[in-house]
Design brief:
The protein has 13 helices and 2 strands, in the order ααααααααααββααα. The chain is mainly alpha-helical and 328 residues long. The protein has a single domain, classed as Ferritin, core subunit, four-helix bundle (Ferritin, Up-down Bundle), CATH 1.20.1260.10. The chain has a two-stranded antiparallel ribbon. α6 packs antiparallel against α7. The protein is globular. The structure holds Phenylacetyl coenzyme A. Phenylacetyl coenzyme A binds next to α3, α6 and α9.
Length: 328
């Protein structure tokens, strides 16, 4: 069913109108049976387009997501935390590589994806456009942003597109280490001095709104959820993922004695759902469309990285390899 009728009653005037009905029906039957779709299989153009959009945005989010924490590597308190944070940041960049590879299987070259990122054409996660002023901000990202990412990725990993699901299985395994590292860092602050506790509370106050935005617009205004869920690209709605995150992490935050900056946040025991102040979707739209506190800075850093790495890529692609004859 789609918008109240069968797919064939509802495709008129949509991007599916030009698809062959037989192929479309066979494709949907495969999805319904829980089969994985692989790169050489037939798929509707809209499925391909939506997957490229979503996987590409996910890849960009990993690579840009490395930046706010990356600036804390040299300032992390203690050698062990520096090592752990460096490994985490390296993992995030590795996740981007896995995701770019998955998106490439759908036909969009990596160079074009990077161009679209640095030219501001593609989106990436709203949350990485906020500044990490303090060490507690870095701890918030490692614990709670990674927690949110895991909620989303565990769901998407059960989806229909083989290469994306396999990439997500690997990514989730690494993210679970990040989460433990982040939780450990936050417990340290929570059980530390009054200044350390205040530092995390202040981070929580600033990051809560972007964290609520992180799962995407409410279901009633989300543009793509219906199509993506129908084709099992997304396995949970934005509101369901937000609810699951609140269910798992609000009790843990309260347990550590911190206050969540939303007076309306409570679990409705009758519905089993969390109630909260409706996030400011105007701010969300502004940030994802390029006007957040750090958008310009984030893209500027990526442009510099792209420019400085050009000679390496050119050297690797060069056909004029120089062979050194071993000395006799
Ligand atoms: N930020 O119709 P929907 C991480 C856009 S990885 C920016 O609901 P959809 C790891 C959306 O693209 C974090 N834009 O969209 C890490 C669309 O715009 P468009 C990233 C957003 O796709 C941790 C419009 O709003 N994870 O954190 C956001 O059905 C720590 C309408 O929205 C993924 O990308 C947002 N938060 O659902 C790294 C997972 N939300 O394209 C370093 C895969 C929505 O029409 C440190 N993605 N938009 O112009 C997904 O599951 C989905 O794409 C959603 C959005 C759930 C994010």
């Amino acid at each position: 069913m789609y918008g109240g009728g069968t797919i064939f009653e509802n495709i008129k005037g949509t991007e599916l109108e030009n698809e062959d009905p037989g192929q479309l029906a066979a494709f949907e039957a495969r999805i319904d049976r829980g089969e994985k779709i692989e790169p050489r299989d037939w798929m509707p153009a809209l499925y391909r387009k939506q997957l490229i959009r979503m996987i590409e945005q996910h890849a960009h989010s990993e690579i840009i997501g490395a930046l706010p924490e990356g600036t804390w590597i040299t300032r992390a308190p203690g050698f062990k935390r520096k090592m752990a944070l460096m490994a985490k940041v390296q993992d995030e960049v590795g996740h981007a590589q896995l995701l770019y590879s998955a998106a490439e299987t759908l036909g969009k070259p990596r160079e074009q994806m990077i161009d679209d990122l640095i030219n501001g054409k593609s989106k990436y996660s709203n949350i990485f456009n906020y500044p990490a002023f303090t060490w507690a901000d870095s701890c918030f990202i490692s614990w709670l942003v990674d927690a949110g990412a895991i909620v989303n990725q565990l769901a998407n990993a059960k989806g229909s597109y083989g290469p994306y699901c396999r990439a997500l299985d690997r990514i989730c395994a690494e993210e679970s280490f990040h989460l433990k590292y982040g939780h450990h860092c936050v417990i340290y602050l929570a059980t530390g001095t009054a200044i350390q506790r205040a530092m995390f509370q202040e981070a929580l106050d600033r990051w809560w709104a972007p964290m609520m935005h992180f799962f995407g617009p409410s279901d009633n205004i989300s543009a793509h959820t219906e199509t993506l869920m129908r084709w099992k690209v997304k396995m949970a709605t934005n509101d369901d993922m937000r609810n699951q995150f609140l269910d798992m992490y609000v009790p843990k935050i309260w347990e550590l004695g911190f206050t969540i900056p939303d007076p309306n946040l409570r679990k409705n025991e009758t519905t089993g759902r969390w109630e909260y102040t409706e996030p400011d979707w105007d701010e969300f739209k502004r940030v994802i469309n390029g006007d957040g506190p750090c958008n310009k800075e984030r893209l500027a850093v990526r442009r510099i990285a792209e420019e400085r790495g050009r000679w390496v890529r050119e050297a690797l692609q060069s056909k004029q390899n120089v062979y050194v004859t071993p000395l006799a």
